[in-house]
């Protein structure tokens, strides 16, 4: 599940100057969507590149917009209507004006905005979710119970967006019932709160990997090969690196070049990842050949505890260098499995052993090396249930 942060910036939060400050802070923090009044759509697009949703009571009028920049990416019903309590809910929801608007098939992406003012509004939100692409639920005296109820009852036909005012509330929303909300609608103009909410989103999306130690069985010089350095647009910490390997089922942890050396300055944005044929792990559990990486691609950064994050490739350097072949054995339920990779013969390339950061030039048979092992084969970078022999 990919979580999202929506920033509420309609007329209820202040004048256009204050809304501009809020939206600008959101753009800098990396919000996914901005929710505004329809009259502000074009002005938001002038501020930066972001998805824009607009409150609207009659989605049929979308086609009347003359300026393409004034057309929102999604239209949300409920403000000044039944959704926010301005208009009373009808006894029979078949007579709901908001629901009727949602059900009009005009080709637009639609959202429903519902303030949970009582149990009947939970029922209304459930009904709206059947037709809305996004269902926004905003608690008044917010407790976790209404959100738990809605997460449990609403299916995958909609994305459930919980209204929050702080990053702490956002974290709770993302963790409720372990499944969590698909996104949060943040109503705050505090730049720090906006940034922290985006950080909470990023943390919720991160995959955790089970890393294990395998016994090194051989380290040998193999001659020259085309070696790949992956330079990212992010600075990595001392415990971070990437997972690379000649075999997709066994990817070795290689440290980023964060350590100072008598011979070369640190390059904390770089991983010297091995030869062009090797796999590197990418976000979402995929892999990509090192030779195919290019600026703008995403790779997965992982630390020695298995926590991951995404990083954008800024540059890939391919040069001929002398290499080592590192071979290790993994204990599996079916027996011992051998995995290997090629790494440059240089003291600046560090793997992780029981003793910690270890230069590949100091690696010996019998050492235990950190890696990620999975028994799935790969086809175009995706795991498949297939028998493939790699040796």
Automatic annotation (TrEMBL):
Domain 3-dehydroquinate synthase C-terminal: from-to ranges: 214-391
Top-level taxon in the UniProt lineage: Archaea
A Gene Ontology BP annotation from the UniProt entry: amino acid biosynthetic process
Pfam (any one): DHQS_2nd
EC number from the UniProt entry: 1.4.1.24
Signal peptide boundaries: none
Domain 3-dehydroquinate synthase N-terminal: 3-200
This protein's UniProt keywords: Amino-acid biosynthesis, Aromatic amino acid biosynthesis, NAD, Oxidoreductase
EC primary class: oxidoreductase
Record GO terms (molecular function): 3-dehydroquinate synthase activity; dehydroquinate synthase activity; NAD binding
InterPro entries reported in the protein's UniProt record: DHQS, DHQS/DOIS_N, DHQS_C
Catalytic activity: 2-amino-2,3,7-trideoxy-D-lyxo-hept-6-ulosonate + NAD(+) + H2O = 3-dehydroquinate + NH4(+) + NADH + H(+)
HAMAP family from the UniProt entry: Arch_DHQ_synthase
Function summary: Catalyzes the oxidative deamination and cyclization of 2-amino-3,7-dideoxy-D-threo-hept-6-ulosonic acid (ADH) to yield 3-dehydroquinate (DHQ), which is fed into the canonical shikimic pathway of aromatic amino acid biosynthesis.
Similarity section: Belongs to the archaeal-type DHQ synthase family.
Protein name according to UniProt: 3-dehydroquinate synthase
Gene name as annotated: aroB'
